[in-house]
Amino acid sequence: MTANISAPALAALPGLPRDDEGPVFREPWEAHAFAMAVTLHARGLFTWPEWAAELAGEITRAQQRGDPDTGDTYYQHWLATLERMIAVKGVASAETQAQYRDAWDRAADRTPHGRPIELTPDDFGARS
């Protein structure tokens, strides 16, 4: 799976996994995380140089924790950067993000495979 992104943005993200056509993704969630970052950039939440610097910092911290930096964890770093920047920029706190992540997990747990996952108010309650 590939995505279109401008040449300046690609130049600002030299570690981005890509082929001749552009960025590549091994899993759908990677493409979703990528698309969220592109959309937030397009809406002016951050510049590509700012994003690249934050992503580089996340990768450096992961390497210091022992990440072998083989490329397999690139989009995990991308997602961690996205979550941190969303909190820092005041879009959604880490707590709010955790609340929605937990609610999504509860909804996914009760949803049969192949069916749409729907959040309900009960999903935001405490786990039993």
TrEMBL record:
SUPFAM superfamilies in the record: Electron transport accessory proteins
Domain called Nitrile hydratase beta subunit-like N-terminal: residue spans: 20-99
Xref: InterPro entries: CN_hydtase_beta-like_N, CN_hydtase_beta_C, Elect_transpt_acc-like_dom_sf, Nitrile_Hydratase_acc_put
Gene3D superfamilies membership: Nitrile hydratase, beta subunit (1.10.472.20)
A Pfam match: NHase_beta_N
Highest taxon of the lineage: Bacteria
Stretches with biased composition (Basic and acidic residues): 103-116
Residue ranges, annotated region (Disordered): 103-128
NCBIfam families: nitrile_acc
This protein's name: Nitrile hydratase accessory protein
Source organism of the structure: Rhodopseudomonas telluris
